[in-house]
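(Fold this chain)
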Amino acid sequence: MKVVVVESPAKAKTINKYLGSDFHVLASYGHIRDLPAKDGSVRPEDGFAMDWETDAKSDKQIREIVGALKGADKLFLATDPDREGEAISWHVRQVLEAKGALKGKDVKRVVFNEITKTAVLDAMRNPRDIHQDLVDAYLARRALDYLVGFTLSPVLWRKLPGSRSAGRVQSVALRLICERETEIESFRTQEYWSVQADFLTPKGAMITAALTQLDGKKLDKFALPDEAAAMSAKARIEAAKFSVASVERKKARRNPYAPFTTSTLQQEASRKLHMSAKHTMQLAQRLYEGVDIGGETVGLITYMRTDGVQMAAEAIASARDLIGRDYGKDYVPGSPRLYKTKAKNAQEAHECIRPTDMFRRPEQVARTLDRDQLRLYDLIWKRTVASQMAAAELDQVAVDVASAARDITLRATGSVVVFDGFLKVYREDRDDAPAAGGEDDDSERLLPDVAENDPMARQAVRPEQHFTQPPPRYSEASLVKRMEELGIGRPSTYASILSVLQERDYVKLDQRRFIPEDRGRLVTAFLESFFKRYVEYNFTADLENQLDDISGGRIDWRKVLEEFWREFSAAVDDTKELRVANVIEALDRDLGPHFFPEDGTGRDPRLCPGCNFGRLSLKLGKFGAFIGCSNYPECRFTRPLAVAGENGEAAAEAGEGPKELGVDPATREPITLRKGPYGWYVQQGEGKKPKRVSLYKGLEPAGLSLEIALKLLELPRTLGSHPDTGKPIAAGIGRFGPYLLHDGVYKSLTPGDNVLAIGMNRAVELIAQGKGGKGKAAGPLKTLGELDGKPVTVHAGRYGPYVSSDGVHATLPKGGSPDTVTLDEAVALIRAKAARSPAKPAKAPRKAAAPKAKAPAKAKPEAEAKPKRAPAKKKPAAAKAKQAKG
């Protein structure tokens, strides 16, 4: 009997089928032990010795493996083919040796890049010993992360209340996000103009060209800085006669992209499928471990943690065969395409991420995969096949249209795909591209045939105003790409890094973009002020290079740790005498432009609005940072740690004046945004009874413009007369939100209706849906059928659409539409709601009142009862570790 240890039960089940009855395959469930979550688990003074511990779950797995080994003569360690997998095998062997379970047993390591029968059997025929250099690289990385987390985090807790933790790579990734936000805040918009003109060719076709030269000089982006310059250029174009000055034609080739690595898969899944890096890796893990196809569990993709782009020769041959069969010989390039990664620190230890069988098309496995698994497999399959296809060929044309005096030139460009090549299968998305298709958008611009000296009849001339835009915030895709370019972290760590930053409330994702929370900015400013070396990009990348050198056997892992710890511990010691006042001073200096931005009025942004004398600055309290007045205690003005006027909130909560949106052009009265006890509202003018209108749910203060405010102040507005009754229909905002009013009956608008833009047709439709007056339930929108003899109806409720039958009301799930819900769906919802709701007890007969007795002394609720004083307990180490880890 031979025992095989893998990480997961899914892999164990599959591999056991491949190997047969002579093998017993067991799962370790990942790492069977880890460093205890307490100080001292790594001991620098003892040669960086490490203490390891197992938990109850791991103990159970170890007992199973020990039991299986009793009748076995050989142990195969078949964990994943990377550093982490090598470390798991090492841990298993260490624990089994300590228990005496390996006496007389031959222990070997096997690795396979895909879970297919061929790959597994081939690996079993070619075992090796555990790769100690890879294990040493794991030990060094684990010790580094532990020492940084458990040494730096307590410094943060003491010197910067409210912070959570710091991590070796996590903190550098946070710095990237914070620096980008600072760039955006300091960005100053610049105006510029462009001019386009339409021309009619001699054959009656239209060409649109952009102004590129004026007075014989090539125009740069800011050559037309304002409207006056643009209108002057327009006048000159309108006064001139034009002809074709030149026609340039050239052919271009576009080569396919390399197959996926871990990081490029995460980037494309984020762009195309809107999946987080964490979700992408979870799905890829399932595809790698395999699914049941025809009664056999088969791995669909190769190992998904890799930075290599090379592909096995047999896989390339298979891809070329498929391309020739399904797309034609023209799509097969003359020779196989070989790729080499450009990523910094790439190990290229494994293949790219590819299908294990090129001929297993996505539609063939659709039944065995859930929606997201299928979408990801489809992405991997297309990228892999496209990587071995012929280049795309394009015809590119540029036409210069010049004035008779040759002092004005406009250019029109176009391109046409004459052979789609790999584009027939796959188009990559470019992050921050305005169109969904990115740089490879489907749109083509074909220019009509013209020749030099052809007269061009000028048509419309259009000046256009533009403004420069700040750099975009990082998405998951662009952040992963940037980290890879800098050599920060490893492919397998990106997903966990991004998750930790969000779990610590250091950043948030808004519209798939990372925005640093103020807590995150404080931590970054603190680290840059007092631990600058350890959040530098080059330092972190150099450390990654050293870890790679360890895995290659070129440097001793303890030497790397010694050099790091000597300087790092000294930097930590330097902060022991650091006073909180020093921390506040540094943070106030670095973050002042963020929390106290200039508003263009010349007013000192730090002047306290409470006393008009003191200076606002950052303060640190027991529960974290806040903004307060220097004139304390005479002035007790404070505000939360937020940018003044951000979303309109900080200003209002702090007691600052209302935010002026502009002036009503009709009355010349100021229009202001204010916050009252019942929420946000806009106000016109001042005085005893100025006109006010509340902001309804979904209308954010941050995005409120003068135009929208004026429309709000026009409410309620009359839409017109009802075609049946002849009575007016009005739209307004009331206590329960936007509404329609007709003939004394109120009808709430649905979340999809805009009270500022709703028209008569939609208003009549909504009024027809419910005739209930004030305080009455609106009638059903429609009847779907019956349930147990009772009608099943659809209604529009105050909190969204719902279905109802026999007094049971069930809200439609998010995204559900009353127009598309079916009877079966409604019945299922109603029955589920009825099952959750307790039956109402029958009313008991009313009893005569008992004689009034003196009430006993009121007892405190159990939750409020004062417990006896007990000795203070230390915070559990695990809880502390949870904060420090990262």
The mean pLDDT is 82.
